[in-house]
Amino acid sequence: MTHHDKISRREFLARSAKAGISIAAAAGAARLLYESDVQNMLPKPSIVSGLKDYSVSSVAGQTMSIVSGSNRSATIRKAVELLGGINRFVKPGETVLLKPNVAFASPPRVCATSHPDIISEIARLCYEQAKAKKVYITDNPLNDPKSCFELSGIASAAQQSGAEVILPKADYFRPLTLTGGRLIKNWPVLYEPLKNVDKVIGIAVIKDHHRSGASMTMKNWYGLLGGGRNTFHTDINTIITELAMLVKPTLVILDATEVMISNGPTGGSASDLKQTNIMIAGCDQVAADSFGATLLNMKPAALPYLLKAQELKLGTTDYESLKPIYAKAEG
Amino acid sequence: MSEISKTRSQTVISYLLIFLFILAAIAIGIKQQFYEKSVLGDTILSDGLFGTNFSPAGDVETYNSDNLYEKIDGKADLYLNNGFVSLQCRRFADKSKKDSWAEVYLYDMTNGENAFAVYSLQKRSESTPLDWAQFGYSTSDSVYAAFGKYYTEILLSSENNTLLASAQNAAKNLSSAISAGKTEIPFLNLFPTENLVNDSFKFINADAFGCSDLENIFAAEYKINGNNITAYLTKNRPADTFAKYYRFLTDNGAKELRHNIKLPDCKAVELFGTNEIFFRTGGYFAGVRGSAPIEDLQKLAEKLIVSLSRQK
């Protein structure tokens, strides 16, 4: 620096003040434009007001079937056949979503998840007999979804039967408000897989449940919820009832080949299971669960969500009034 | 000071500063290395837990009370209501057979009493005791144990004796690593030891003996003159528990029996062939029940009263 380049103290202070004002102005502008929640910058998804009705017309005397046998493929085949066959539920060219319980990363033999043999058989029936266009399978497990689908054997069953597993992704969820609901209000629901399919089949397993008493077809829809859904555990009977209000399925399947009679819903050991060799299929999820409760040595009245659902005319706890078809599967 | 010497001193200071920065970086690196070691030590679920034939099939998963439900969903309440602090999980796979694996769940339950409570509440009836464990058993495809403040479950991919033996060994390794020793559960020490059936302690958190007013009961089984008798006790129950339980029994048809126990709050009853003596002493509500002569029940009740009176 030469003497000519030197600036006076006054000049220095003036320049510093200008620089300071420029920085403050830039910071102020940035503060005004700053959005602390990046979510607010994203386009807001519109709130869905419910799901479409996936049910089929009722046929007297063909609402519920109860088939005994130890081979799941045979019992589910027979149970569907007794209700009029898969063609009653799925038409050629339709798309079908299977909703099993894939809540845990555990092997099929502990029955904490829906059994892959049922998935395979239903997918096969949809493709081969009903000539479905496509069969999808989804669930939103709390554990790592990929591990859950793989260890439960459902990913493999899907692959072998040509069904496609839809693993939950953030953008598959949409806020949903259930008309008449108290808990499902602007709540994220796994909507994308449900949006465009023609039919929905719920595939559940009977489990003792520490909080709700029993986990069956109605509780199975819990896997469609996103967000911090454990908040609903404090009002479990209401949320299960609202889920039954939300989902009007084409068909529900309740596997009671082996029932988790204790330490549910995780179980973990074969000693938590009881072999009952029964498969239930039906169009009335309340009735199916009411029968399922008896296999856990419970009366339907012991499960408040069944009574609430009946009050709302979502189904009947008096399953015998539906004249279920009892049969035995061969093979 | 000349310009040259000024520049030289500035260079020396600069080098000194750079040297200090390097020293600080080295110190941070060393500190972090030790920190990593301590974290791995804290997990307990070390790589070698299952021996040399197994390797970890993933990292340790850790859950706290806010996210426990993500791992065990509806079962979370059982732990949260009994002093749960944290859960560590890790899966180990057989090196020669990757689809043969075991998953270890290690629950920190604050203290031995809570660990025993969740152990007891989930105890499987079809099980074999682990001979080395104070509280432990295995089924055909899983191992369960409570040691110190921990409750552990080891769940297997299949029913396989070799895999089960490895899991039992891993549970033993875990117990040793934790150095739990004998778990002191004060409530269990209150039960008389004479005629006590081994491995019969249990915890009943609600609806004990069908009565909704009886909660958080510790119980033990006795074999006296060929008959099974259950002794039970609980502390800090509401003062009217005694009266409510008496009303519950009489409402269900219990008939009162004579007894010689010198306590103001003590009743003996018979209901559906089961005799029962229950009483209140100190802060405890306790009793004995079974299909046994009232004299045998009374002897056991007296021993229990003596034991409880020592703890007042």
User: Which residues of chain B form runs of ≥5 with pLDDT under 50?
Assistant: 35-41
What is the CATH class name of the largest domain in chain A? Alpha Beta
User: Which consecutive residue ranges of chain A, at least 5 long each, have pLDDT under 50?
Assistant: none
Helix content of chain A: 25-40%
**Total domains of chain B:** 3
In CATH, the architecture of the largest domain in chain A is 3-Layer(aba) Sandwich
Which descriptor suits the 3D outline of chain A?
Answer: elongated
Which architecture name of the largest domain in chain B does CATH use? 3-Layer(aba) Sandwich
* CATH homologous superfamily label of the largest domain in chain A: LarA, N-terminal domain
Average residue-wise pLDDT of chain B: 89
CATH topology of the largest domain in chain A: Rossmann fold
Question: What does this protein structure show overall?
Answer:
The complex is a heterodimer of chains A (331) and B (312). Chain A has 2 domains: 3-34; 47-328, LarA, N-terminal domain (Rossmann fold), CATH 3.40.50.11440. Helices cover 32% and strands 20% of the residues of chain A. Chain A has helices at 9-33, 72-82, 86-89, 116-129, 145-151, 154-161, 192-195, 217-220, 236-246, 285-295, 304-311, and strands at residues 64-68, 95-100, 134-138, 164-166, 173-176, 187-190, 199-209, 213-215, 251-260, 273-282, 325-328. The mean pLDDT of chain A is 94. Chain B is an alpha+beta fold and 312 residues long. Chain B has 3 domains: 1-42; 54-178, Protein Transport Mog1p, Chain A; 186-310, 3-Layer(aba) Sandwich (Protein Transport Mog1p, Chain A), CATH 3.40.1000.20. Chain B contains 8 helices and 15 strands. Chain A binds chain B through residues 103-104, 106-107, 109-110, 142-143, 209-212, 215, 230, 233, 262-266, 268-272, and chain B through 69-78, 122, 124-127, 139-142, 153, 155, 157-159.
